[in-house]
Amino acid sequence: LGKKIINLKAVDSTNSYAQKLAKQRYPEGTVVFAESQTKGRGRLGKSWLSLEEKGLYMSVIFRPPYKAAKTQLITPLTAAAVCSALRDFKLDAMIKWPNDIYISEKKVCGILSEISLKANKPSYVIVGIGINLNHKKDDFPIDLQHKSTSIRAEMGCPIDKQEVVKNLLFYLNMFYEEFIVKGNINSSISVCNKYSLLKGKIINVKNKEHIITGLAGEITSNGSLMIKDKVGTVKDVITGEVIKF
Ligand code: BTN
After folding, report:
1. Does ligand 1 lie within 6 Å of residue 102's CB atom?
2. Is 147 in the pocket of ligand 1 (CB under 6 A)?
3. Is the CB of 149 under 6 A from ligand 1?
4. Which atom of ligand 1 is nearest to the CA of 15?
5. Helix axis angle, 74-87 to 161-181, nearest 10°
6. What are the coiled-coil residue ranges (predicted)?
């Protein structure tokens, strides 16, 4: 990863840009960075605050040789890489399944994975990572201030973007290599479990139209989350949005 790096000043969305490159057959491991985004995208149609010079906005092209279900493991893999990279700075980063990183119960990073299928088989995956680096508290809009944080706010001093990038690419490479060479993501999943923000909490997960309530348990090797409901039935939730925890 990172053999081909594209640095942009401004772009609509690094994910959209990387998608165009992937269609033009750019190789696996191509990384797109932008200083700012005008249409940063989040999951579920939300937008992503992309202030100039404050955050890290990047997207990576992956081409794992797997079917769709296994390819989706790229999300927990990336969460494990971001979490490990931030923990090296002595930050108490935690993973909020399926795709957010939190510090002090506030969101510091979001991951957006977009799989492109061709004849029902994945042809590439774009993994977008947005990390709040040097935002001050009041850089966030009022409605985000109580639920978002930045590395600067947590460390009490500014952080060098390149240091974070270096660390992040190191862990992404490491976890991805295991995924490709050994075909499993055991080390990524164990990081997800070790630093799981939800484990042991009563949570509400919105999954399509219904809401599942129960005690959050382990994240499985399929990337799903085990939830035990009131009567003790254990459900294996493939994906969803945790709306209360
Ligand atoms: C989320 O929390 O909903 C996911 C947010 C993902 C944001 C990143 S920033 C870089 C990349 N480009 C985008 O447009 N989105 C992702």
Report:
1. no
2. no
3. no
4. 12
5. 140
6. none
From the candidate CATH numbers 2.40.128.460, 3.30.470.10, 2.30.30.100, 1.10.1040.10, the one assigned to the domain spanning 202-244:
2.30.30.100
pLDDT given for residue 51 in this prediction: 82
Mapped onto helix, strand or coil, the DSSP state of residue 213 is strand
**Neighbour-count burial of 126, counting CB atoms closer than 10 A to its CB (0-12 exposed, 13-18 middle, 19+ buried):** buried
Q: Which CATH superfamily is domain 5-194 in?
A: Bira Bifunctional Protein; Domain 2 (3.30.930.10)
Q: Which helix (H) or strand (E) holds 212?
A: strand 210-219
Q: Where are the domains of the chain?
A: 5-194, 202-244
| Contact between residue 110 and residue 98 where contact means Cβ atoms under 8 Å apart | no
Query: What b-and-e string marks burial along 186-214, b requiring 16 or more CB atoms within 10 Å of the CB?
Result: ebbbebbbebbbbbeeebebeeeeeebeb
Tell me the average pLDDT across 150-154.
Answer: 97
pLDDT tens-digit map of 31-55: 999 999 999 999 988 999 888 889 9
Nearest Cα neighbor of 171 from 129, 133, 134 is 129
Residue 70 confidence (pLDDT) above 90:
yes
Query: Do residues 147 and 107 lie in contact, with contact meaning Cβ atoms separated by under 8 Å?
Result: yes
Q: What is the pLDDT confidence band of residue 120, given thresholds at 50, 70 and 90?
A: confident
Task: Give the alpha-carbon dihedral of 138, 101, 23, 240, to 10 degrees.
Answer: -110
